[in-house]
Write a structure and sequence with these properties.
89% of the residues lie in helices and 0% in strands. It has 4 helices and no strands. The chain has helices at residues 2-17, 21-49, 55-83, 86-122. Helix 3 runs antiparallel to helix 4. The chain starts with a helix and ends with a helix.
Length: 125
């Protein structure tokens, strides 16, 4: 999620400053290339953290969150684009991408902390 969020943030920011429609399209295509792996990673993390027998509820909750997030993001991005211009809509996308990247960073740090003591007890570096 860290790489996915960072990649999305970089390319959606590039789309914000693109001067031609073709460049905007390429930047948004590159943004989308990072979206899929970020979503797969998020769903995989949810699956691993689900209790036995709770994977269906976890996956349903994740998809509901994606659907609601897309709806809210589209409404907010559209309102920003209408009032500020396309930079406002792209800026919201960049902000969401940064949040995804920071979430990935936090999960990575939490995973390292959980594994830390076990590695120390086993005597392995």
């Amino acid at each position: 999620m860290l790489i996915g969020g960072a990649g999305m943030a970089v390319f959606i920011t590039a789309a914000t400053f693109a001067s031609a429609l073709g460049a905007t399209a390429v930047a948004l295509l590159a943004t989308g290339a990072f979206l899929g792996p970020a979503l797969v990673t998020a769903f995989s993390i949810a699956e691993r953290r689900s209790p036995a027998g709770g994977i269906a509820v976890s996956m349903t909750s994740m998809q509901s969150g994606v659907t609601i997030g897309v709806a809210i993001g589209s409404a907010a991005g559209g309102a920003l684009a209408a009032s500020v211009g396309p930079e406002g809509g792209f800026g919201l996308g960049a902000l969401a991408s940064v949040v995804i990247g920071l979430t990935g960073l936090a999960l990575l740090a939490a995973g390292r902390q959980r594994r830390g003591p076990a590695l120390q007890e086993s005597g392995k570096p």
